[in-house]
Amino acid sequence: MYYRNLAAQFFGFNFDRIMLTDKIHKHSEDIFQRTLQDRKHLHRHPELSFKEFETQKYVWQRLDEIGISKKQKIATTGIVALIEGKNPSAKTIALRADMDALPIQEANQTDYCSQNPGVMHACGHDVHTSSLLGVATLLQNMRNDFNGTVKLIFQPGEEKLPGGASLMIKEGVLKNPEPQGVIGQHVMPLIETGKVGFRSGIYMASTDEIYVTVKGKGGHGATPHLNVDPVLIASHLIVALQQIISRNANPIMPSVLSFGKVIANGATNVIPDSVYMEGTFRTLDEKWRMDAHKKMIHLAESVAAGMGGSCEINIVKGYPVLYNNPELTSRTRKHAEEFLGKENVVDLDIWMAAEDFSFYSQQADACFYRLGTRNEKKGITSTVHTPTFDIDENALKTGVGLMTYLSLRELGMS
């Protein structure tokens, strides 16, 4: 012990931390095949948002096998479970994994390819869920070694409004006990396997859905003077709404307005009565977000009226800005560097995609980091939300090991 303390004083060694790191790396290797089996099962049987009934059954059964008895179903297809260490009330840390899949037909040819036509785990939620089951296994086996409580959140419906996180929060997932921190990880195919990424503060954008119906008066395309052309009005609207971003948003605050669906059921010589459009609005500032909503509604209605038509615009408020608590993120990044090495922890840029983990970040100290899954040598480079998305399976070792280590470092060893 004397020489251990001497080495710690003069060389910065922490033998207990090194031993813990080695122990978790070894245990992650030991359960890798079981984690891989979970991931492949989930990938074969994907379910869409808020329809994760079989997934819920599978996770519940696995928690039973792991020996976790304190658990309950929540938000219809979600699960929340507790692993209590010594002195359970000392501190609580929550770990979140989402479980839903996307309406995409998988194009991969693997032994674990989706067996549900038109549904695929193209965003890595099977990785998140199987990783958290692995973490649960390790922490359950080590429950006599740490203080406090680990709350496991298996969440439905991340991919679809209103977001499963919002529903779970309404049903009390962040209460009894209340976590002092919420940690989530998400696959990132732009980062090499074995590496992870962190960003403190504002990280991901809010997201709102925009539905617009432009009404005019249809008729023959050869007699536009007798009609009120909603196609022309819609065209002006798309251009005019973009000017809200270019001339009203602070240039240093990223904002995105995109319309991806425009339906005008006319013909070459038929002007329709109406045009329907759908779009998305994203930004990183909640105050500007609300101001932009008002400006878009006022502008759309005014432009349509000024051209002789009318406009119904409905903005469905979606996920808020995802904010990584600076103190918690600083600690988790430091712990990740301890566990993986500084060379394997990278900085993240702001990301204009959205995540309903943001609801947790608005309610509690939260940290949402990225798990590298890329392996160019194996040809694993496809991005999320594509029919060829896949992961380097070795990322599961990193996902399980790191989240376990972060939990133990946050709670403290007894």
Defining traits:
single chain; 414 residues; alpha/beta; Aminopeptidase; Alpha-Beta Plaits; 2 domains; eight-stranded mixed beta sheet; four-stranded antiparallel beta sheet; 16 strands; elongated; disordered N terminus
Number of domains: 2
**Fraction in helix:** 25-40%
Radius of gyration: 25 Å
CATH superfamily of the largest domain: Zn peptidases
Q: Give the N-terminus to C-terminus distance in angstroms.
A: 18 Å
Give the class-level CATH name of the largest domain. Alpha Beta
Strand-pairing-aware structural class = alpha/beta
Q: How many helices in DSSP terms?
A: 11
Number of strands: 16
Which ranges are low-confidence, i.e. pLDDT below 50, for 5 or more consecutive residues? 1-13
The largest pleated sheet is described as: 8 strands, mixed
- Mass-distribution shape: elongated
